[in-house]
Structure formats: C-alpha cells, structure tokens
Design a protein that fits this description.
Strands 2-4-3 form a three-stranded antiparallel sheet. Strand 9 and strand 10 form a beta hairpin. The chain is an alpha+beta fold and about 250 residues long. It is about 30% helix and about 20% strand.
Length: about 250
Amino acid sequence: MSKAHKPAQVLVRHTRRLAVAPFEGFDRNAVIFVPQGLIDDQLSGLTEGELKIMLCVIRATNSGQRESVPLSIRVLCQGGVPDVLPGRGSGLSPRTVQTACTALENSGFLKIARRIAPDGSGLPSLFSLPLFALGMSAPMEAVSARFPGYNAARRMRLPILVIDRLLAELSGAELRVLLYVLRHTFSLTVPDEVMPMARLVENTGLSLRHTRLAVTGLTTRGILLVQHRQNSERGKLPSRFGVPVLG
C-alpha cells in the first residue's frame, strides 16, 4: 500500500472519568442506623479522619449490634471485607487512621481493645461502639468520664451508600455537609428543607468559604440537590436542600 493510500492514524483523547460516577440517588431501603449524637452533637468537632473512622466502625459493627469486631489499619484504610467493611474503607492514610483511632478512644467515642499474638506479633484490634440502652444512665463499663456513651434509642437512618461508596471520595467538608442535610431530610423522610447558609456553617463547624465549596462539589456530582430561591420583594431567600432518592 502506498503512502497516499495508507489510513491516517488518529490520536484518541481519553476523557477523564469522574471519581464518583453519575449519581443515581439514595435507596430508602438500604440504610444503616447511626447514633444521632454523632451528627447532632459531634459533627462540628470531629476531624475528617475521626468522622470517617466512626462511620467505618458503625458499618463494621452494624450500628453496635456486633461487639468486638476485629479491624486492622489496612481494612479501615481500604475496606474490601465482605459483611464487615465491603466498600473502599475510609480512603485515609494509615497514619491518619492511627491518629483518629487514638483520639476517638481517648474521647470515649470508641472502645478499642488491642491484642498481641502469642509470638509477640500484633493482631487486629477489637472495635466496639459505646452504647447504653434506654433507661440506663450509662454503659455498664464507662469508657470515658467525659463521654457516657451513645443512647441506643436515639438513632438516625443513613443511606449505606454513604459509607460503602462515597466515604473514600468525599472531602471532610463535603462529608459534613452531606451528613447534616441527610439528618434533616432523608432521615426524617422529608424531601427537602430550607437551610440558610449560616445554619450549615454553624452546625458543620466549617468556614463560610469551605461550606460553599462543599455544597458546590456535592451538587456538581448530583449528590446534593439545591433549589435557590428568589423573591421579587425580599430578594434572595435561603435555599432548599435535599438529596436525590431512588423511587
């Protein structure tokens, strides 16, 4: 074949795939129960690492129904364990996971029993949630004088997709905003709620700038739904926040 008849080679440009694929929505039938105090009382005070580790342990212990679940640093980082932490884990580095576990244990938010094998090698630590039942003033064994434990009766419904699929992808700011919106919409079975930006700032512990960036990142990927409102007389009104729900 002559040069004149040789087919031209065309360079194909591969488009970069989004880290989170186009988001379909949250399934109301695929949920896990999360201690309400984690969102209502602790959301603004926990670091990204601490919040992600808490959610991983909640998933692994099935909201505290399983006690003393063995979890290694690698599993908390990467997940991939069926029936325990089947998703991609926290997505954090081993050092960040270790720092978060130590802080959560010292605060009493987690119970961690460290183990050593007979040959002196380390074994995965045993993780538990400090829960107490309704009618009890505190757990049978107090974990921390500063934190009596989570009331097992005060729980919220969280889409399990948040932990299994999104946890490793979301930034700490995005996770805080998403959890707060889920707490006041999905968990209460309401489609949306009016939320002034100042309310999100106050309850997530983020700056105004980081709150806006988080909202933009979540809405761009379709994980968060925001309806901006305008009034002819009053001008700009607080936006309505919600999440896409399957069915």
